[in-house]
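Lab notebook: predicted structure, single chain.

Context: the supervisor wants predicted structures on file for every construct in the current expression panel, including those that have not yet been purified. This is the next one on the list. No modifications to the sequence; it matches the entry in the shared construct table.
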Amino acid sequence: MVPSFPRTDLFCSFAASGYPSLSLPILSVAHTPLGSNPLRTLTITLRTMASNHLNGDSHIHHLPKKPKLSSTSLITPSEIQSEFSHHDPSVARINNGSFGCCPTSVIKDQQVLQLEFLRQPDHFYFNCLKEGILKSRTVIKQLINARHVDEVSIVDNATTAAAIVLQRTAWAFAEGRFDKGDVAIMLHYAYGAVKKSIEAYVTRAGGCVIEVQMPFPVNSNDEIIHEFRKALERGKENGRKIRLAVIDHITSMPCVVIPVKELVKICREEGVDQVFVDAAHAIGCTDVDMQDIGADFYTSNLHKWLFCPPSIAFLYSRGSPKCLDLHHPVVSHEYGSGLAVESAWIGTRDYSAQLVVPKALDFVNRFEGGIEGIKKRNHDNAVEMGQMLAKAWGTNLGCPPEMCASMIMVGLPASLAISNDSDTLKLRTHLRENFGVEVPIYYRAPKDGEVGVITGYARISYQVYNTFEDYTKFRDAVNKLVCDGFTCNLLSN
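Prediction complete. Output recorded below exactly as produced.
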C-alpha cells in the first residue's frame, strides 16, 4: 500500500524549500512502523523541525547524521531472518559475493520510489531525481572519505566504471597523448569483464598490456608485491611508459585481499601515470578510504556487500586535473557537465537503486558497530567456516585469514578430480540442483611435476543472513560425493 504521505513527497518538498539537508534523515525513518520502533520520537521531532523550517523558523542549521541506538534497538536474529525471508529457504546461499543481497526494508523503499516515478514521471524527474542521487553521492562520499562529493559518481556497476576509465585511456592513444606500445598493467586474476574491457579499449588502441602473475594459494602480501614489481620492470623495458595500472582490491576468483595501498605507493615511486583500483567487492567488505589508498580512480559495487538492490556502484575520481575528461559511455543530454551529472541521467531507466543508499545505510546502522561491526563479524565467520570445511575435507585455505575479508577460498578434496574450468561449472550446477548449495568453484591448474594436488577451490562468502547450517550442508554434500566415489568426469557435458 502506498503511504498517504509518501517519503518522496517529503523529500521533494524539502528540496524545493531550499533546505535539502532535512531530506536525508526523514527519508531514512519516515516509513518505519511507529508502533514498535524506538525511533518514533526522533521521527516526530524531525517532522516538527521540518514544519518549523517551512514556516520560517530558520534557526535550524543541521540534523544528526544518524540516531544512536541502544542495545534494545539493535536488530534481532528474528528480524534478520524476516529481512531476508525472500531468499529461497531450500538453498544454502554461501555466494553473497556474486550478486549480493538486499533486505526487505530496502526493497520496500525502492518499490515506493518506483511507484512514485510511474505515478508522475515528470514531477519525479524534475523535482526529485537529481537531488536524490546527490543525497546518495553524499552518503558514499562520507563512507569512502573522499574530499568532495564531486569526486563521486554513481554508475550501474564496477564494469561500467572500468569502461569509463579505460575509454579515457583509449582516447589518449587515439589523440596521440600516449605512444603506441605504452603499457597498462593488470593482475592476472583481474575480473574477466575488466580483462575484456582492457582488450577492447587499451589493446585495440595500440597499448601493450602486461599481467602480474599472481601465486595461488598465496601465503603473504610480499609474494604479491614481488610479482607486481617484476611486472613494472617488464613494463618499462625499452623506454616504454606505464600509463595505467589496474589493481583489484579484492580479487574475484580466486579471492584474495590485495595490498592496494602498498601497490599504489609503488606505482607512484615508479612513475606510473595513473592507478585505477577495481574494488567491486570492497565497500561493506573491507576498509575503503580514498585518502589512505591514494588511487586516482576507485570503484566498488554497493549491491554486493552494502545491501543495496542491483544495480549501483560508485566511481571515485580524485580531484586533480589528471583525472578530468571522464565521460559516461552512454552519451545523453548532460554530456560535458561532468561525469557525476552525466551518470545521473543516461536516459529513461529505473534509477531507484541509486536512490536508496540512505535507506541501506539505515539498515547497516541497526547492527552493533554499524558497517565496521558487520565487516569484522563477517570476516571472522568466513574464516571460521573456511577452517571448519578445510579440516573436514583434509584440505587447506587459499590464503592466510588476514588476506581475506568476507570471502575465503577453501580447497576441495582432490578425489573429486576437477581437471578444467568446465568441471567447476558442472560441479557447481550439480551441487545446486542435487544438494541445494550455491557456491562458486575455481580451477587451479597443477604446476609442472605436481601430482595429487588440490585443483578445485570453493569460494565461500559469509553475510549477516548466513547460518552455521549453510556450511554444514555444503560440508556434508561434499563428504557424500567423496564417499560415493564421485568424480567430475561422471557429469555429462
